[in-house]
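Hi, here's the filled form for the chain we discussed.

Project: internal
Contact: R.S.
Residues: 185
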Amino acid sequence: MIASEPELRSLMRASLEGDAGAYRTLLDRLSRHLRAYYRGKLTRIGRSQTEAEDLVQDTLMAIHTRRHTYDVSQPFTPWAQAIARYKLIDHLRHTRASMADVPIEDAGDFEAQDDHVGAESAHDLDRLLSGLPEKMRRVIRFVKLDGLSVAEAAKRCGMSESAVKVSVHRGIKAMASGISQGRAR
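And the returned structure, exactly as it came back:
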């Protein structure tokens, strides 16, 4: 089933309001679109299907970490497509693919726009997380980055739901302190 713009937009709005089921459905629908997009682009330039799968995961993570930047008054698809396009460009840069490898009809899809802000943000987040105890880091990743519910994270970590909530709260507070002290950079 191909998801339409109204469906994707509705799912994104619901997920931003805390509907975990809508968020899982959104990510499922997006992964199908992204997989087809990346396979088509990469196949044309002789790249592997494994790279397409890696890009799907990278893009879903980027959408997850940047979902707070989505303006609900705007269409969802162009926002998600921009992230997907930047991830592809970034991937091709890092894997040393040249623009000569891209068919001429696709050249317009690969504008020379830099996604350094996203890369820096991911690096900063990793650095802040690395300063936390392992259990706290895992809980934050499960709840805040992977989108698991507190109950699901508690089950995976062998903790009570209250302990997960406290751990997430303390971890985010420690990360905020790290930001204010300049440890993220």
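Let me know if anything looks off before we file it.
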